Amino acid sequence: MSRPTIGLALGGGAARGWAHIGVLRSLIAAGLEPDIVAGTSIGAVAGACYVTNKLEALEDFASTLTRRRVFGFLDFNFAGSGLITGQRLGARLETHLKGCVIEELDRKFVAVATELGTGHEVWLNKGDLVTALKASFALPGIFRPVQINGRWLIDGALVNPIPVSVCRALGARIVIAINLNNDLFGKGGVIHDQEALLEPSSAEDPALPEGNGRAAVHLLHRQIFGRGNGAPGMSAVMIDAINITQDRIARSRLAGDPPDITIGPKTGRIGLFDFHRANEAIALGAKAAEAQIDEIRIAVRALAA
């Protein structure tokens, strides 16, 4: 009996996306390797490393990240359309994926992006793999947009955070969705009668110091990652705004086109910029996938031809 085609929809979620590595590891160990992979943002990166047999390299890279190393990958650009150019991260991807062409991969793969201006959902299923990934994770305001065939593209999470529909369109009989925001209870509620207090801010944003490179870098680090008093940094504001939008859109799209199986790693306590907590996220992804292995096998047996 032939096994039904399995599609894997890997959702966005910034640093929580390291959980995708654990999910993929568990599926591979159980003999349930997906035949079709569609990914958005960090999900596209994890999916691309799977279909190119570079998952181990991605895990090695993620596991060695520290706060300092994460900051070192951020090549700031204050004159362009994104805070970070992404050239250092792009160079890292090129190290392992240079020359990979999407339509020549052994498995079907799509990276989802959003076109600026029109809001079109763009399925990147041909051409240079690294370029497609850079477009799919181009968070607005953080990474500069990527131009492909005359279209300026940004993060696909704005239109299709968990691309179940892509897997279905490519012929998947069973679709497994990885939702990295599954355990964030209480999101999207309404707070009634909140009183606004006329109270000035406790601290003003400090000016960038002159003539002291180390102090300037330290201040920039606080502005990006946040301060010790709990005030969010610049990146946290931008990424969390995208995450709120992504969560609302994901709920709507999953309700209209539900997957057959949902794997929801409990990554809610991992911050969106906590890329240094990869080992924790990977373990949570593996645990969540292992809990669903029996359900996936039941679905596979039911649809086997």
In short:
The chain is 40% helix and 14% strand. The protein has 305 residues and is of the alpha/beta class.
Summary keywords:
8-stranded mixed beta sheet; two-stranded parallel sheet; single chain; 40% helix; alpha/beta
Roughly how many Å is the radius of gyration? 20 Å
Question: What share of the residues lie within helices?
Answer: 25-40%
Number of strands: 10
The H/E string reads EHEHHHEHEEHEEEHEHHEHH
N→C terminal distance: 6 Å
Shape: globular
Calculate the mean pLDDT score and round it. Answer: 85
Outline the low-pLDDT stretches: none
| Structural class by helix and strand composition | alpha/beta
**How would you characterize the largest beta sheet?**
8 strands, mixed
Indicate the proportion of strand residues: 5-15%
Describe this structure in words.
With 305 residues, this protein is of the alpha/beta class. Helix content is 40%, strand content 14%. It has helices at 19-29, 42-51, 55-63, 67-72, 87-97, 129-136, 164-169, 213-225, 234-256, 278-290, 293-303, and strands at 6-10, 36-40, 82-84, 108-115, 121-124, 141-143, 146-148, 151-155, 174-178, 261-263. The strands form 2 sheets. Strands 1, 2, 4, 5, 7, 8, 9 and 10 form an 8-stranded mixed β-sheet that branches. Strands 3-6 form a two-stranded parallel sheet. α2 crosses α3 (55-63) and α5 (87-97) packs antiparallel against α6. The longest helix is centred in the C-terminal third of the chain and has 23 residues, at 234-256.
